[in-house]
Design goal:
eight-stranded mixed beta sheet, binds phosphoenolpyruvate, eight-stranded parallel β-barrel, binds magnesium ion, 14% strand
Length: 584
């Protein structure tokens, strides 16, 4: 068979090759419209109820297994699936239609599900689309139990395989193990989508946004996933496989080599110390943070506590997680970002109205300010945990001063309550703002007076400033971190922060783009926060350049008129600084 190369978006570094496992998350097969006799209807209903029961048991088992192996928050994904099975309207409709239409349950059940899914898919709302995938997931399970087939899940993947899917939901990703899922490739998604971010956390090579990988690859095909270049090679020739094996070895050797920098300081040739810290989603990732030599956590995304569960996390749950991260990272600092739900991180239990534009909607700090009851639980836990290590916290999606003041006022209330009860916390804990909305970047001079630090969230800043959806692969070409408009916003934020005497960090994916490190250093960025995996590489670059060089590079970069020119220049400069460095 002829080799085929598919180009997508590099989502998580590394190269893996092996047999493809087509994970069908998209479509259910067509059930046959089989007529039944009137007297057969009760047996058909019984069959349906048995399949529901069996599915319920299966899901509960998976939930338990995942909670035990990877953590309760991942297991909670399946609570949403269990809820679909409890949906009285859905169940009653199937039963009454079996009796009325005298058709076999498979067809009726699939038809009812289709109606539900269609209703959801017509609504332009990320949260509801996620519900749609829950229904789809559960529906396929029930159908397979009805016909006696086994449901495919990534949890049950026995042989190591490259997973090929249209998209992967959080419940799919939660099931992944490095041992069995050696790489994944999807039709949709962008580089800063949370599926891509999760792949890096799990250290699984991944390429997203391939558009038609599920149409090209068949089950069992031999494929190579190159997460460095963002390509998938189907039916590679023997010499290509050999070449990629060598590249893989080289990449892994390079990674191991870089690890030797683990205990060295992140400082420039002329002695400027930079903070290179890590982004985490789950407390367990601290091991990887330390292993890769990061000097702390610059972004702890706390949304995963709230996602895919049917209840709200308790103050104790928050507290235990924050305390463990603070203790395990001590004496290094950990920046906890307060709840940032919304956008492509959906809620599954809170009543959130449908929205046309979820990324521009009722999310993050907007949601927290409207629901101080929920917000205060998290703030109390953060403050209490601050007594056990070096914690800092920051608010996401600050768009203006009033929001910042309101958030700080709630924090003050919570602090006063704790004080009144003699509960220990760090009264000098640094409180910062993420700068990820263009309005905040423009008025960063005003915001800087009222916070202890800034952390630039470029994933969102770029999406809002260029008006380019960060999860849409069709317009990914517009998503340019080197766009002169973006560089100017970043310079403005750093300059304003420094003028007010506060430090400025960056926790968006841009902080881990190797060729941009000299520019960001030259602009004066104090802290770079990224996936642990990339920390050694970025440390190497910082240690290979002087501030004088970096400032010159930054100045020149600011003089270009297009993102392309900046990118070409940045690549050429990095090649000069580190000739052996492989630029993607
Ligand atoms: C960002 O927007 O850059 C960021 C770090 O936050 P998130 O990716 O979680 O939106
Ligand atoms: Mg963000």
């Amino acid at each position: 068979m002829k080799p085929k190369i598919l180009k997508g978006i590099p989502a998580s570094p590394g190269i893996s090759m092996g047999k493809a496992f087509l994970f069908d998350t998209h479509e259910m097969g067509q059930a046959v419209k089989r007529p039944i006799l009137e007297e057969e209807a009760p047996a058909e209903v019984r069959r349906f109820k048995e399949a529901l029961n069996k599915t319920r048991q299966e899901i509960a088992k998976i939930k338990e297994k995942i909670s035990r192996n990877i953590g309760a928050e991942h297991g909670e994904i399946f609570s949403a699936h269990l809820l679909v099975l409890e949906d009285a309207m859905l169940v009653d409709e199937v039963i009454s239609r079996i009796k009325k239409e005298r058709l076999a349950v498979e067809y009726i059940f699939q038809d009812v599900l289709r109606k539900y899914i269609k209703a959801f898919s017509n609504i332009d709302d990320e949260y509801l689309r996620e519900r749609m995938s829950d229904i789809n997931d559960v529906g396929r399970r029930v159908l397979k139990n009805l016909v006696g087939a086994k449901h495919d899940t990534l949890c049950e993947l026995k042989q190591p395989a490259v997973v090929i899917a249209y998209d992967l939901s959080p419940s799919d990703t939660a099931c992944m193990h490095k041992q069995s899922v050696i790489a994944f490739a999807t039709d949709i998604g962008g580089r800063t989508s949370h599926t891509a971010i999760m792949a890096k956390s799990l250290e699984i090579p991944a390429v997203v946004g391939l558009e038609d990988v599920t149409a090209v690859v068949k089950n069992g095909d031999y494929v190579i996933v190159d997460g460095n270049k963002g390509i998938v090679i189907v039916h590679p020739a023997q010499e290509t496989i050999k070449g990629c094996e060598l590249e893989k070895k080289g990449f892994e050797e390079k990674e191991r080599g870089l690890l030797s920098l683990r205990d060295l300081a992140a400082e420039t040739l002329d002695g400027r110390k930079i903070e290179i810290v890590a982004n985490i989603e789950l407390p367990e990732e601290v091991t990887s943070v330390i292993y890769h030599g990061a000097q702390g956590v610059g972004l702890y995304r706390t949304e995963y506590f709230y996602m895919n569960r049917s209840d709200l996390p308790s103050e104790e749950e928050h507290f235990e997680a924050y305390k463990s991260v603070a203790q395990n990272m001590a004496p290094h600092s950990v920046i906890i970002r307060t709840l940032d739900l919304g956008g492509d991180k959906f809620l599954s239990h809170l009543e959130v109205p449908l929205e046309m534009n979820p990324f521009l909607g009722w999310r993050a700090i907007r949601f927290c300010l409207a629901r101080p009851d929920i917000f205060k639980v998290q703030l109390r836990a953060i403050l209490r945990a601050s007594a056990y290590g070096k914690l800092k916290m920051m608010y996401p999606m600050i768009s203006g001063l009033e929001e910042l003041r309101q958030a700080n006022a709630i924090l003050q209330d919570v602090s006063a309550e704790l004080k009144a009860k003699n509960i220990a916390f760090d009264e000098n804990m640094e409180v910062g703002a993420m700068i990820e909305i263009p309005s905040a970047a423009v008025i960063s001079d005003l915001l800087a007076r009222e916070v202890d630090f800034f952390s630039i969230g470029t994933n969102d800043l770029i999406q809002y400033a260029i008006a380019v959806d960060r999860v849409n692969e069709k317009i990914a070409y517009l998503y340019e971190s080197t766009h002169p408009g973006i560089l100017r916003l970043i310079k403005n934020i750093i300059d304003n922060g420094h003028k007010a005497g506060i430090w400025v960090g960056m926790c968006g994916e841009m902080a881990s783009e190797p060729e941009l490190v000299p520019i960001l250093l030259g602009l004066g960025l104090d802290e770079f926060s990224m996936s642990s995996l990339i920390v050694p590489e970025i440390k190497k670059i910082v240690r290979s350049i002087s501030m004088e060089q970096a400032k010159e590079i930054a100045q020149k970069a600011m003089s270009f008129s297009t993102g392309r020119e900046v990118e070409d220049f940045a690549r050429a400069k990095l090649k000069e600084i580190l000739p052996e460095f492989e630029i993607k």
